[in-house]
From TrEMBL:
InterPro entries: EmrE (IPR032713). This is Multidrug resistance efflux transporter. The keyword Transmembrane applies. It comes from the Bacteria. The chain crosses the membrane at residues 7-24, 30-50, 70-89, 95-116, 136-152, 158-177, 198-222, 228-249, 261-284, 290-308. It comes from Halalkalibacter krulwichiae. Keywords: Membrane, Transmembrane, Transmembrane helix. It holds the Pfam family EmrE.
Length: 329
């Protein structure tokens, strides 16, 4: 499935977030600046893209119709996602943050009942509450086991306080990101493209990022030039490229909870890329046998997700063809 491929590519660029956030903290940068600068840097790029595509007016029209919804779910999807992640990076290594972030694999699947989907019945179309896709949940759980194996031995060398500070904020982020993303897809209803939606969510959260930046200035002073540069790289790599690719993938399958879970499960590959990045850039130790087993399980889980999703697509196509033939008769 093409959407799974987009999700994996997005994971490569998302991995930059965990590596550079940890790098900034190790060099004395504050998480307050790491979080706020990313989104402040994103604005001009997104404005230029949406303006070039002549879609600005439509975006503002949609935001004006439901301002509270935009503020609420943008806050959940962006602020409650990124602020806790950068905070956790200040107290724990990037691999621990990236590993804990994989809770989003299961979180996205469990959120299904909070949403409604349109189905075709004999009496026409009707909306029903989505169910938890058990098959997708089972596969996602297998991937999560692989993630846990990667973390076990390395986490055993850390103090409990470090683990808790590195885990709890990221667990909040892991549920906030898919919830905010899915709710905003529901609010937009397919009327906006991915660039418009990302820009709208970014603009809606600017007041919150300015407050966080103000706290940063008061508490630690202005950011260093090195932190500004690395935050800029994160903004382009993770904020623009990765977020756009991931949102495109989720937009395409937003009507199917099983396929949506498969796309969200691609974020598990971030652990692989973060491990590689930390080994090359931050001199992190090479994974041991248990961690390699975990990596193998993650890869197998992703392949299984891809297989099941492709099979679902094939069955859906065959069913559509049969229904068409019946209608023609």
């Amino acid at each position: 499935m093409k959407e799974i491929g987009l999700g994996i590519i997005a994971s490569i660029f998302f991995a930059v977030t965990f590596i550079l956030n940890r790098s900034m903290e190790l060099s004395g940068g504050s998480w307050l600046w790491s979080s706020s600068l990313r989104f402040l840097f994103m604005v001009p790029f997104l404005v230029l893209i949406v303006f070039y595509r002549n879609n600005i007016k439509q975006l503002f029209y949609e935001m004006k119709k439901q301002p509270f919804q935009w503020l609420l779910w943008s806050f959940v999807g962006f602020v409650l996602f990124y602020a806790p992640i950068t905070f956790a990076a200040a107290y724990g290594p990037g691999w621990l943050v990236a590993g804990t972030w994989q809770l989003t694999i299961v979180a996205g699947t469990l959120l299904g009942p909070l949403f409604w989907q349109t189905i075709q019945t004999k009496n026409g179309q009707t909306k029903v509450r989505s169910r938890i896709p058990l098959k997708a949940l089972a596969i996602s759980s297998i991937i999560l086991i692989g993630v846990v194996l990667i973390q076990v031995e390395r986490a055993s060398n850390l103090p409990l306080q470090t683990i808790l500070i590195g885990v709890i904020p990221v667990a909040i982020a892991a549920f906030a990101y898919p919830l905010g993303n899915r709710k905003m897809m529901e609010v937009c209803g397919g009327r906006l493209d991915t660039f418009q939606r990302v820009l709208g969510m970014t603009l809606a959260t600017i007041p919150f990022w300015l407050v966080i930046a103000a706290f940063g200035f008061v508490s630690v002073g202005a950011p260093s030039s090195d932190q500004v540069l690395q935050s800029f790289i994160v903004a382009v790599s993770s904020g623009i490229i990765a977020t756009t690719l991931f949102f495109i993938a989720t937009d395409r399958v937003r009507g199917d909870q099983g396929k949506l879970a498969a796309v969200e499960a691609t974020q598990s590959t971030q652990v692989l890329f973060v491990l590689i990045g930390e080994i090359l850039l931050l001199s992190a130790p090479f994974p041991n046998g248990l961690a390699i087993t975990g990596l193998f399980i993650i890869v197998c889980g992703m392949l299984l997700h891809s297989y099941v999703t492709n099979k679902m697509n094939s069955n859906s196509t065959k069913l559509a063809v049969k229904q068409k033939k019946v209608q023609e008769l």
